[in-house]
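Escalation from tier 1.

The customer reports that the assembly of two entities below gives different C-alpha cells on two consecutive runs. Tier 1 could not reproduce it. I'm attaching the input and our single run for tier 2 to review.
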Amino acid sequence: MMMKTMTSLPSRVSRLVPTLGVIFASGAALAVNDLPGGPAVRQLNLHPPVTVIAEQQAWLHWFMLIVCVVIFVGVFGVMFYSILKHRKSVGHKAANFHESVAVEIAWTVVPLLIVIAMGAMATRTVVAMKDTSNADLTIKATGYQWKWGYDYLKGEGEGIAFLSTLDLAQREMSNAGKPEGDNYLLKVDNPLVVPVDKKVRIVTTANDVIHAWMVPSLGVKQDAIPGFVRDTWFRADKTGDFYGQCAELCGKEHAYMPIHVKVVSQADYAVWVAGKKKEMAALADDPNKTWQLAELVARGEKVYNANCAACHRPDGKGAGPIKPLDGSAIVLNDPVQQVDILLNGRLNGAMPAWKQLSDTEIAAVMTYTKNSWSNQTGKLVQPAEVVAARKK
Amino acid sequence: MSAVLDHPAHHADDHAHGHPHGWRRWLFATNHKDIGTMYLLFSFTMLMIGGVLALGIRAELFQPGLQFVNPELFNQLTTMHGLIMVFGAIMPAFVGFANWMIPLQIGAADMAFARMNNLSFWLLIPAALMLAGSFFMPGGAPAAGWTLYAPLTLQMGPSMDAGIFAMHIMGASSIMGSINIIVTILNMRAPGMTLMKMPLFCWTWLITAYLLIAVMPVLAGAITMTLTDRHFGTSFFNPAGGGDPIMYQHIFWFFGHPEVYIMILPAFGIVSAIIPTFARKRLFGYTSMVYATASIAILSFIVWAHHMYTTGMPVTGQLFFMYATMLIAVPTGVKIFNWLATMWRGSMTFETPMLWSVGFLFVFTMGGFTGLILAMAPIDIQIQDTYYVVAHFHYVLVAGSLFALFAGVYFWGPKWTGVMYSETRGKIHFWGSLVFFNVTFFPMHFLGLAGMPRRYADYPMQFADFNAIASVGAFGFGLMQVYFFVFVVMPMMRGQGQKAPQRPWEAAEGLEWEVPSPAPWHTFETPPKLDASATRVVG
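Tier 1 run:
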C-alpha cells in the first residue's frame, strides 16, 4: 500500500513541483512557506473563502472558468480540426460558401443567451455585496500615504482608534534586497481586530490620494477616496489572521501598506477591547506636561520610526524627492515653519499633513529631529507650543 | 534611408513632379506611402523604448526585495511603459498601416489631406521627445500610472505637465489622422468601390476613426482639468477644494474604454484580410463582420465603468455595467466564428502572416474570456487591480493588437518593399514570440488570483516563482522583437531577399495587389475601372 502510494503519479508530481520551486527560488535564502490567511506558495486560485461573499465569488469564478474553457476547447477544437484537415498540403480543395443568415443569427443569439445566464448567476451576489445595512460593528478605514488608520465608529469597541503600519524591519529588508519570512511585507504593528460571526461594516475614506482596502479571504476590496466615504462589509465565519494589501496606486510606498485583519472569538474580542481602552487612556498625554529633553527624544524616536522613517529614512537623509531632515535649516532653526509643515503638509500632500498625531507626539518628533544624526541642537519643543500652533 | 524605400523614385511617372529627395523627402513628405513608412518606423522605435521600460520592471520583479530600482523609479517605469506603448507604439502603428493601405485598397491616389497628413506625423516627434524626456526632468517622469488618476497626479513634479502637453499633441495628431482617414474613405473611393464592397480593413479603420474623434477630446478635457487643478487653483478633481477624484475616472474611462477598441478594431481588419487569403476562400459573413464592428464600437461607449467596480458604485450601476460589458462578447464572438467559418473547408497554407493570424485568434480569445470573467462584478472585486488584469490586457493588446500588426507587416511587407521576407526567419519570430508571450503573461493569471496587486515594486515571497518565470519570458519576448528588426525588417528595407511578385500570395484579393511590388511612389493617379467585385482593375 505504502509503496503503491509512493510511486503513484500524483505523488511523483508533488515531489517534482517543490524541486522546480527550489530551482526557481535560487537557494535556501528564499525558502518560504504558505501563509495561512495570506498568499500560499505558487497559489493558483483565489484564497480559501472565509465569508459567504468570498465563497460565492470563488464559486462564480469556477463556474465562469469551466464555461469559458468548455467553449474555448469547443471552438478551437473545430479550428484545429480544420487546420489539420482543410489544408492545401493534404490536397483539400477550397469550398465556396461565404454567407448564411441562419448561421449568423444562431451564433448571435446563443452567445447572447449564455452571457445573460452568466450575468444572472452573478446578480444575487452583486446585490448581497452592496447590502451594508444592519451591521454589528462599524469601522472606518482611512488610507494615508502610506499606512491605514482604523476608527471603531459604532458597536462594541466604539472609540478605539489606531494606525496600522508595515513593520519597519521588513521595509528595510526590501531596500536591502534581502527579504525574509512568510509574512514578508504583510506584518503590521497593529492589526485590525474584529469578532467572528459578526457583520462588520468597513467605511473607507482617505487622507491624501486614493487607496484601496483589500482582503482577499474576506472577499472585500473597496477604494478609499479622499473627500468621500464608501462602504463594504464582511462577516468572517472563522477566527484567524487574514492579510491583504493596498490595491490602488497611491505613490511610491504603494507596496508597503498592508492590511492585517485578526478575527477573534467574541470573548477574546471583549478582552481586546478592554485592554485597548486602557492602553488608549494611558497614552492620552496631558498636553500641558513639561518634558525633559531625554524622555522627549526617546518618545520622538518611536513616533519617527512609526510615521516618518519610511520616507525620510531612519538616518534622516531622505531619498530622491523626499527632503533630508539631517542638516535641514528648517529643522535646525525654524520651529514655526517646521510645526506648520507637520500640521498642514506641503506640496499638495507629497509631504502629508500629520494633524492626526497628538500634540505630545508632534512635539516629541520635532525634538527628536533636532537632536539626532548630525542635528545636535539641544533644542526642545514642548507640547504646549504645538497646542498654540494648532490654534493659529 | 534605404535602397528599397527609394525604389519608387525609379518609376517613370515620378520625375515629372520633381519631388524632393534626401531629408526633404521625409520632412516635407506628403506621399501617403512615405508617411506610412515614417509612422511604422516611429512606432517600432517607441515599441523598443516601451519594451526596455517593461524589461526594467521585469528585472526588478525577478526576485522579491528591491534590487535594481527604487519604488519611485519603479512607478515611473510602469507609468511610462503604459503611456508609450498605447500612445507611441500601438496607435501610430495602425495609423501607419492606414496610410499605406487605405489609398491602395480603395483605389485612391493619396490621402485626402496630404499636408495635414504630414503635420499629424511630425507632431508625434516633439510629443514623443517630451514624453520620453520627462525621465530627465526634476523629480523624474510621471509616476501616477498610465491612467493618471487624480489626486495622485496633483502630487507629481513638473514632468506631469510635460506628459499632459505631450498627450495633447498626440491627441491632436490622432484627430487629424482620423479626419483624413474618414474623408479619404468617404470621398476618394474608385468608381464601383461601394462601401459594402470595401475591404474590412478600411471598414474597421473608418469606424475606429469615428471613435477617435469622439473620445480624444474627452481625454484632452480630463487632462486639461488635471492641469488647471495643478496650476490654476481649480478643484475639478481635488477633494481638498470640493472636487471629485471619481469624476476623473468616469471621464478618463469614457475615453479609455473606446480607446481599447481603437487599438483592436484595425487589428480585426488586418486579420480579416489575411485569413481568407491563406484559406483560399472568401471571408465568411462580410456583412455581419461590418455590423459586428459597428456594434462593438457603439457598445464601447456604455461600458466604461466596469473599470470602476471597486470605487463603490451603487448596486444598479454595477449591474448595468456588468450586463452591458458582457454584451460586447456577442459581436466579438460573431467575428471569431466568422473567421473560423472562413477557414472551415478552405485550402489552407501557413505562411508567416497566417501563423500570426491564427496565433492572434487563439491567444486573443483567451484574453477575451478573461475579459468576460473580469466583467462579472463579484469576481472583479477579487481581481481588480491585481496581476490578473495585467495578464488580461496584455493578452488582448500584445497577442491581439501587436500580433495582428506583425501579421500585417509580413502580409503587406512584400508590397511595401518589393522583397520577400525569409519564411524561416518569420516562423522563428512567430514561434519564439508566441512561446515567450505565454511564458510571460500566463503565470500572471495565477498571481492575480492569489491577490498580488499590480504596480508593486516588491511583493510577498510566496509570489516569487511565478514572477521569476514571467521575467524570464519577458526578456525572451524582447529579444524576439530585436531579432525581428535585425533579421526581418532590415533585410527587407535594404532590398536583400527574393524579389516579390506583384501578387505574392496565391489567393490575395484586393486593389493593393493590382499594383507592382514595390508599390510605385504614385498609384491610381487616375481612378481605376473595377470589376463587379471591386477587387480587380479591368481594362
